[in-house]
Fold this protein.
Amino acid sequence: MLQKGIIRSILEHDKGGKILITLLLVAAVIVPVLNLLLPETSPFHLSAYNVTLWGKYLCYGLLALAVDLVWGYLGILSLGHGAFFALGGYVMGMHLMREIGSRGVYGHPLLPDFMVFLNWGELPWFWYGFDNFFFTFFMIFVVPGILAFIFGWFAFRSRVTGVYLSIITQAMTYALMLAFFRNEMGFGGNNGLTDFKDILGFSLQEDTTRSALFALSAIALIVGYLICRYITQSRAGRVATAIRDAESRVRFLGYRVEHFKLFIFVVSACLAGLAGALYVPQVGIINPSEFSPINSIEIVVWVAIGGRGTLYGAVLGAILVNYFKTWLTTAAPEIWLYFLGAIFVGVTLYFPKGLVGLLHKMKKNQKVNIAKGEAKP
Amino acid sequence: MKKSLRRISLTGALAASLALPQLSMAADTIKVGILHSLSGTMAISETTLKDTVLMLIEEQNKKGGVLGKKLEPVVVDPASDWPLFAVKARELIEKEKVSVVFGNWTSVSRKSVLPVFEELNSLLFYPVQYEGEESSKNVFYTGAAPNQQAVPAVDYLMNEIGVKRWVLAGTDYVYPRTTNKILEAYLKAKGVAESDIMINYTPFGHSDWQSIVADIKKFGSAGKKTAVVSTINGDANVPFYKELGNQGISAEDIPVVAFSVGEEELSGLDTKPLVGHLAAWNYFMSVDSETNEEFIDAWKTFIKNDKRVTNDPMEAHYIGFNMWVNAVEKAGTTDTDAVADAIIGITAPNLSGGYSAMMPNHHITKPVLIGEIQEDGQFEIVWQTSGLVAGDAWSDYLPGSKDIISDWRAPLSCGNYNVKTHKCSGQNYE
Amino acid sequence: MCRTIFSLLVGLLIFSTAAHADELDTLLQELHSKSFSIKANVVDKLGELDDPQVINILQHMLEGELYYTKKDNVTVFAIKEKSLYSLFNARTQEPMGQVKKREIKKISVNNSLRRQLRATIANLSLFNKDPQKRLQAAEELLKNFDPEQEENIRKALEKETNSDVRDVLQSIKATIDLNSNEKSTRLAAIEYLGESLSQETINQLNGLMAKDSNGEFLEKDKEIRQAAEKAIARIESKRVWYGQVENLFFGISLGSVLLLAAIGLAITFGVMGVINMAHGEMMMLGAYTTYVIQQAFPGLLEVSLIIAIPAAFIIAGLFGIAIERTVIRHLYGRPLETLLATFGISLILQQLVRSVFSPLNRAVSTPEWMSGSWQINDALSITYSRVYIVIFSLLVLAGLMLFMKRTFFGLQMRAVTQNRPMASSMGINTGWVDAMTFGLGSGIAGIAGVALSQLTNVGPNLGQAYIVDSFMVVVFGGVGNLWGTLVGAMSLGIINKFMEPFTGSVLAKILVLIFIILFIQKRPRGLFALKGRSVED
């Protein structure tokens, strides 16, 4: 009862959020139903293809949410959030690799295939513990969180801001990409981690597992949304917005700006890590190209298209852009980049507040029209 | 209440619209999926293969199709994005209901789609030379395994050129790593000393080769005949060869034998400084045979460009496609299991004038050719194996895979059978 | 069997000068063989023939212009002219008209044959009239000489007047002298070789230090061994020093590439504040312009790059102006959104070249004057293309600085970027200046593309490969400061190259990135930070 009260208070005056959460709750129930209970012949049957695809979109949605939290509310344009996402993914990937056990290609009881392949004698120390799911679950937040903490602690204390901050976040993810590409790192090099078999004993190829992962992604997105919403509505959130708009003034008022920044940055990194961890079992692979700077830029583009500074807008943007991408790469494989590029340019030019801004505008116009209509006799 | 009802029906409609395309299935054609990147970093290599399959389908349809049905290509763009490969593979099989897929270039993309093909039990023909160490029930490897490319090339250098010192240079990913490991073991078995082998790895798209080429030059001036065995991938090759040329390393001093440089790559290069460097493939455009000339003519007509070249992975698709057609006609159906059974032992013409056969380990037999680069961007064939070489999925030179064999015929039906422990491991699906 | 009889026959013929002409004919006939070992044999014999035509024939063979007609097996020189081949009889040089490719067959050569041909030609041209030719020949022989040719070299040395050629011949002689019977000659030879710098000499001297399987020195004379050891140490210490010089040059050259890639961005991003993700694609356009120019004027290959520079500037510049007028103009004051729009533009441009030029890489040729390397001495050589690119990048930077400081437009440009409303009220057409500035930055990126076409792939991904590095350089150097860009690019290049020998290229790059991240902590506004109020926003 109390919880409900909290949620209600978080979602106060947030119509978009309410709609989003309702939709997600409905999807979390109805998608597994359509996939599992309906026979394949039924026109309403939802194929496994669609379940994993939409599960993937939801993970992207959570990632976009994380970016929007730091960009939209704190004014930090992170061009390196893909790194936190990928780290979360790698943590999950390591767990799934350990789950394989001796069922690998070479049948080694402890080492993943790629290590046998490269003649590694024993498991590197940083691979220990990941056979335990709870440890893994913990690390999904800890690994990206620690990186964000160290990075942010240095950067915010030194008052690196604006474009400089954006570029060094890019340098961070670029350096990580190069590092993970190295086979000596012990993370499978370019191929990354793949050929997963099951999670917590449930086969990843089962429809039930897929539906469960989808539902989990939806729930994670809801929880993530509530956390972000809570933070932005709280006192800290208001300080954050103030930092975004006039950092020096906030500092002069006596706030420790870097603490607020660091806190929100770390929370955001943890959310991105969670998104990555849910993403990996659904797509079945994690490899260093997730760290590529272009990927991180794309995430920012989703947020911008959905509407920066509106949490549900970020989610909407991520889902829509990726849906378009999936659709266009089949419908117009030779020329889809023209469309995608044109959408990016068009939205920035004509809808600076993103799709959410557009919706608001339409609504306002409607109201004005109604008002006008009523004014007429 | 009314409001939420509307919302639910909206969700339902959304779901329905997603599910609808499945209903529109054409029954009078056989769908063939093409899964090659048309954008992103791999578009350079893969676009040509998409066109090759389109051409093969067109030609087959002119001959009346397969089993009296026309073939219908379904092209998608996985955009050089490895997770997207898996999504697109699922889309092709589940949504588009294709009977077979021709696709992939990089090993990582193949690893990414592999579980999808195994789960949904569909067929993939993979046309590129690769590191081996894999044999899936659902994948047919028509490119070269290491023993069909790397090992013969080293034999040639050792026996015909008298090379004593070896530089193994590669891009840092699994294919060069494995190939170099196999080669290192092979060279040591042949009595080459550790100090006469230099191994170097560079990242993808490496563009500044000054120091590495200078190192190679130093390594090669120790008085023994030196050669570079290059598993450098794609984009990094152009700056590498340019630097070699500029630092005055000619093929006569230190020949470079490459496994990823073919006619297509050379067409994007100024070949003058490269004359005499080597490549090992199973096919060269300059092969003197009737079928090859026909194929080249057909390709030039199809692509409407007289200057386009043909290369080894195209030949692999040519062989693989014809094998699939023959297997389908033999099985009388496009059903995956029937075709997979029928295709073992099937032969199809290769472009060097002979016939290639599908082996029980899902690899094929091929001749191995060594060519020297000529000024016109073609290869002069300087050596070739006397017969066909059968692809070996599990290398005999790696400790982990020495004891593993692959045979997809009954009763073994296993891609990963350990002859010592008599166990079939790593199999996911029945 | 046939072959032995034949070579016996040939052997007999050598002694009869009357049969000379016929012998050349028979040898040429034998060259038509497919076997490389037979051909190698023939080339040996050709080298022993005292016939002035032999050099010419071997030269054509080396260049792959020696063919024979399929119909009647006449050995010919075939010179390609468009789709046809002009034939000349190899013996008589008489023109034989033009034929199609399929009527003739090439006498192919492989690497070992090529090496043999070079050596043979070198041997034959040691007595050429042209000192340049003699020098080439001597250098060729130094690389792979045959001890049997000692007599020949001695003779050449006696006759030689040109000092450069003498030097090389002396080295060859010294190498031969190492195995002389006279101890004093040997010591003198070691002394002489100790002045050299080449790795080959070290190898030769190392031969004197070799041990047999029992650990005994093969060379019994201790004095000789000590002399050799000293000589090796002397050469090696010099080589280490030159190695550092070489590494420094590598660093500068990598820095100059980074500089070229970053200068354009220093304008569009540094001066105008547009986070220009399409910058890489502007370079790509420049590289493609070079390609198109080489295709359009195949006869002008040597000057194609010179033509390409202004052409690429104009084309990329026009694209830049178009982008500014249609998109960026609407986004001033919203710098982060320029990132999104230009990212979209970069996708479109990449796909555009894929559609127009195909996704394959395009071949851009290197003109003669840019290929090869400048051999300063045996231990140090610098490739010409790199030298030109270093000079070129500095010229571009200097030109740009002069333009900004000394021209009226440069003044307007600085005025607009420093204080837009003020500039506007002074009557400057700010819109026009913006468009021109963005065009300038894009044009310079286009010029950089011309240079990059000489180093790397010309393909749709060219821009992507450099964009991240370009941003790093500009930010490291300090946004809005061209000196910063110069110093930033050069220091990153040199740091990278000096780390590479210890860490390998990947780790070196990672460490450089970490270095940038840490450096920005120390100096949050880059190396050369702009000062003043306008910065604090």
Notes: The two ends of chain A are 49 Å apart (CA to CA). Chain A has a mean pLDDT of 88.
